[in-house]
Structures are given as C-alpha cells and as structure tokens.
Write a structure and sequence with these properties.
Structural class: alpha/beta
Distance between the termini: 22 Å
Strand content: 15-25%
CATH class: Alpha Beta
Order of helices and strands: EEHHEEHHHEEEE
CATH architecture: Alpha-Beta Complex
Number of domains: 1
Oligomer: single chain
Number of helices: 5
Strand order of the largest sheet: 1-3-8-7
C-alpha cells in the first residue's frame, strides 16, 4: 500500500540562492563525503554516476534513512546501533528545489516519483538536472514525512566546521553524535516495499 503523502509536501518556501542549509547524514566511515562514483544505485543515481551524496535537513530525517535502509523494526534493534551522525553546511547556490511543483514538472516528475519505491524516473531526471549544471537537489524525504533531503552531485571533501570554504568541493562538516536513533522514531518511518539501497 502506498504511503499517504503529507498535505504540506510542497508548502515550504523555496530557498534563496545566497543562503546555506545545515544537513545531516549517518556514516560508518571516518569521512562523510566521497569523490568516487557511486557503486550502488540510489534514488538519484545509477551505479557509475558521479558521486551522489545523500543528506537530510534534520537529524531525525538522517536517522529515518538508516532505519529504512537497514529495515530496523523495533527499539530493541535500535539498541544495537552505534553510528556517527555528521552535520555539514551546504550553500544552496545551484541546488534545484524539487519541492516546487513547477520545477518538478520541468523534469518530468510527479509528487509520487519523489517518494515512491520506483526510482527510474528520478534517476532519469537526475541526468537532466546534472547536465543543467545543478550541484544538487532539495526533495521531500521518502523515509520521514514532512522532512526534506538534500542530495549533492559531484565530489566533496569535509573541512573543519568553523572554516570558510575556499573551493566549491570543500564543505564544513563535523561529527555531532555517535549512537542510536532517538526513541519513538522507528514507528514513524515509511517502509519500502522493495529491497533497500544505500542512503
């Protein structure tokens, strides 16, 4: 059964180009970014595409992606999780906001494509978005209703969170927690109906 989409899915105002967003992701590695092409498919990439880096605008959103990917079902299973949550600061210049219906339609996407289990239309749209020069996208989260994900296209490297980047590939980032998802979140996550892939 398809997940019910929140009424306010497209109600968030667009982000202006001069701003930045704070984003979160889990990582079992000692860095949150990479420079090599992805080896696994994701909603916005196929294997071999340039680096595609998945983040969320809230810590709960990042934890929800972990819960969904690992198919965790209970608080007891979450007790075994010990993983780092990273925070980064991403400039919004050249981020395409797919929460805007007009922008979404321009790339042949409907609201259900952004959160559905069939990734083929998003993967196809990703190629067009990248060729338009976008550095990433803002989209509704499929794992946790009313949260937003940011997906970055291209290689990135982490620098100290209090530094100002000199290069577009440098992103201020830091580990903010190592632990388990918060209590109660496991019951709020929207489950996939097909096998998961890496967030």
């Amino acid at each position: 059964m398809a997940a019910e989409l929140p009424e306010n899915l497209f109600s968030a105002p667009p982000v202006r180009a001069a701003e930045s967003v704070v984003a979160f992701r889990y990582s079992s590695y000692d860095v949150p970014f990479w420079v090599r092409p992805n080896s696994r498919a994701g909603r916005w990439n196929v294997p071999g595409d340039g680096p595609t880096q998945y983040w969320s605008l809230t810590p709960d959103g990042a934890w929800a992606e972990l819960i969904r990917f690992e198919e965790l079902r209970s608080e007891g299973e979450l007790d075994f999780v010990r993983i780092a949550i990273w925070v980064c600061r991403v400039p919004t210049m050249r981020l395409v906001d797919l929460r805007e219906p007009e922008t979404c339609g321009r790339y042949g996407l409907g609201v259900t494509d952004l959160t559905g289990d069939d990734w083929s239309r998003c993967q196809a749209a990703s190629k067009a978005i990248r060729s338009d020069g976008a550095r990433g996208i803002l989209t509704p989260s499929a794992a946790l209703p009313s949260t937003v994900n940011v997906t970055l296209f291209g290689p990135r490297r982490a620098i100290a969170f209090d530094r100002t980047p000199a290069l577009a590939s440098a992103v201020p980032a830091a580990v903010v927690a190592i632990g388990r998802p918060p209590a109660g979140l496991v019951n709020r996550v929207i489950r996939r109906t097909v096998s998961p892939t890496l967030f």
